[in-house]
Amino acid sequence: MDDKNMAVNLRNDDLSEETKTLISSLPSDKDSTGINVFLSYWRRSLEDPNHVLFMRFEEMKAEPHEQIKRLAEFLDSPFTKEEEESGLVDEIIDLCSLRNLSSLEINKTGKLCEGRDNKTFFRKGEVGDWKNYLTPEMENKIDMIIQEKLQNSGLKF
Question: What count of other Cβ atoms lies within 10 Å of the Cβ of residue 141?
Answer without folding.
Answer: 20
